[in-house]
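Students often ask why we bother predicting the structure of a whole assembly rather than each chain alone. The short answer is interfaces. A chain on its own may look different once its partners are present, and contacts between molecules only exist in the joint model. In this exercise we take three input lines together and write out one structure for the complete complex. Read the inputs first and try to guess which parts will touch.
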Amino acid sequence: MEELARISAYLVSLAIMAGIYSVFCLGLNIQWGYTGLFNIGIAGFFCIGAYTSALITTPKPTGVYARYVHQLFGLDMPFIVGLIGAAIVCGIVAYLIGIPTLRLREDYLAIATLGIAETIRLIFNNEQWLANGPRGLMGLPQPLSWLVDPKHYNYVYLAIVLTVVLIIYLLIERAIRSPWGRVLRAIREDEISAAMSGKDIFKFKMQALVLGSMIMGIGGALYAHYTRAISPSVFTPLYGTFIIWVMLMAGGSGNNKGAILGAFVVWGIWIGTKFMTDMLPYTLKARAPYIRFLFIGILLEIILIYRPQGLLGEEKRVSKLVE
Amino acid sequence: MIILEAKNVTAGYTPELNILNKVNLKVKSGQIVSIIGPNGAGKSTLLKTIFGILKPREGTITFKGDDITGLNPDRIARKGISYVPQVNNVFPSLTVEENLEMGAFIRNDDFTPQMEEVYELFPVLREKRGQKAGQLSGGQRQMVAMGRALMLNPELLLLDEPSAGLAPLMVEMIFEKIVDINNTGVSIIIVEQNAREALKMADHGYVLAMGKNVLDDSGKALLANEEVGRLYLGG
Amino acid sequence: MLELIVYGVVFGSIISLGAIGLTLVFGIIRFANFAHGDLMTAGAYVALFLVTGLLGWLGVPDTNFGPLSFGWRMLIAFPVSMAAVGGLAIAMDRILFSKLRAKKSSAVILAMSSLGAAFIVRMIILILWGADSLFYRPGMLRHAVELPLGIKIRPDQILILAIVVLLVGTLHFFLQKTKMGKAMRATADNMELALVSGINTEKIITLTWLIGGALGAAGGILYGIDVQLHPYMGWNFLIPLFAATILGTIGNVYGALWGGLIIGVAQQVSTAFLLPTYKPAVAFMLMIVILLIKPKGLFGGSSD
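Now the answer. The structure tokens for the assembled complex follow.
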């Protein structure tokens, strides 16, 4: 019985992380899967989303505490405000980033997003007054924690995460099947023809960028309140960008179900590699994370060469009006 | 003797669409053969298929009796055919002389006599030999393009719309040079929008439309042909 | 300030080596190779293995050459590592990129694949050497030499500049005076015409990877000599590398040289006003500015 409870708790924490990553994949899917924007700066939005929610939901440090923890602001507001705030701030940042970069060629855009994510991380790391610099913020509140005792809290959080995933999924599905969604796909397929049919390409790309980033911001917020502590070192290119790309490519870009599936599958593989490396001799144990990531990197290459459409491939019918 | 023959050639760029449909072409040694027809008729595509840039799906192409169907361009170049594309036909950041050197790339021997001949044919290139090809005028670039193709001493030269985008004086000059080249014994297939001029210098002409042969006859006969005149020569 | 500029030139010349390799690949194969930084790291670590491992076992002596911080082992390791990483780059192309090119994958998919390759190389280095910073010559005191105008520079750094000049000069000779070099320039200009002229473009592509990888390795080793080695060094170069390449116009080898120097100097000079950790952000800002006002780079109008 005890064993069952432990396994169950373990699975729940797995599912929470996979669910959080699903949110990122859904956001990336709008940008890449539907519009063809090569965003490798996801970690930047991850970071901003997490920190925004953290700053909104914690009180500004006062008294003695303030000597050790520096924050730009602290609104001490409820979780849902943090979530929404994260989305809005990410949206604004995405808009500002998009202005100079969206007209660039796709691989230049990638370089720009990489640079931006890195700059964001540098700022959070160095500007202590903003969010406590490298030490980060701790003790972030857990929503609805009064519902159950701490031992079972994760079940509640899982429910929250899955609810958010579902809502976002449904919203995106609606949006994609609309005329707006069709334009996005047209842009990805053939930007020149889409432009010639009179659509303002830039506006649509910007909308995809902003919407996708807002969703990523929500993902960041969900992460922050799960782990309850964040610092700039969390939002690395590996955990904050690369793994999300592998997830989306594995599940199927251009497919929202694929985005979610990919997140769960790849996160499962990631956890699976932990079991593999747990069996390693002691001397290699320290290198375990690298071995695991090597595996994930090779996985991506295999997907790109042998099954670039991922598990589910792209959705065929995007509109009730059959194309 | 027949130097090049294309029989029933079918080819296309995408799997679903054939640009050429069972096209036939014969070139006798020493001839200038002109291919004319409306836009999209597949004229350029035919040249590319002969030169191996595009592989035919059906049909055969023989050069001096050898089957060259589906060979790669560098093999075909070694057999004695040179190709001058319509656009992007020089190396812009290389000098004129370097462009000619590249033309002779597959040769391992001394190609200076060839280069001298090209400079004789196009004296202005000798003047500008050290200049980057991208900085030349349209007409001069066309000369570089043709010069590059001549470096291999080809027996057959494929020209894709050599007069495209050139001023009328340049056009006249280019066509004169083409006849000069032919007079040294090089057979030429020329695809041209400027159908009237193309037929004037042609020994034989082919009319292509929608990827199919429509008509072929001697250059003079096609020029005199009323229907050809109406449809393709602008009345 | 003068010292900042001098050091900027030293660092910038290392960036130039990487940027030249990157621009060659960008210009001929037409995609952004995100693995290039990690190729530089690989170069540094292969040399490390040779200098602190293999060559030691083979009994090669290791006394320093005069005031420099290395000896015979590095002299041997340097070209060997360049060749090895050149080979690694070719292997990367054979295993990954050429397969994707054959499938007519877009530049983005190629870039994504190079991103994966970057992580793979880095993970292998982390597995083999761990995450700590390492040195070719641990515990070495680095004395500076004083030049006229009161500039302090280390002998190592003078040599770095000399090596960069040598490598770039050799490349220049190769590109301008040899048949293969001209064929490379021709292929970068117009690949289809190169094919038409009978140039074996596959061979050119292989050569491009070889040169790119070798130059990158050289840059990585020089940085390791000058500063230190750590597994993220190449990845941290990526933004300055791309900035230098774009600044100098994609495909333009001499542009990449200047671009590297400009970025290097700009980064160093910025430390007079900003925290040193913001250096990559400075490179990034420069890149954005160039993309906005002169997207074809300073030497723009290159065939693209």
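Check your guess against this: Chain A has 14 helices and no strands.
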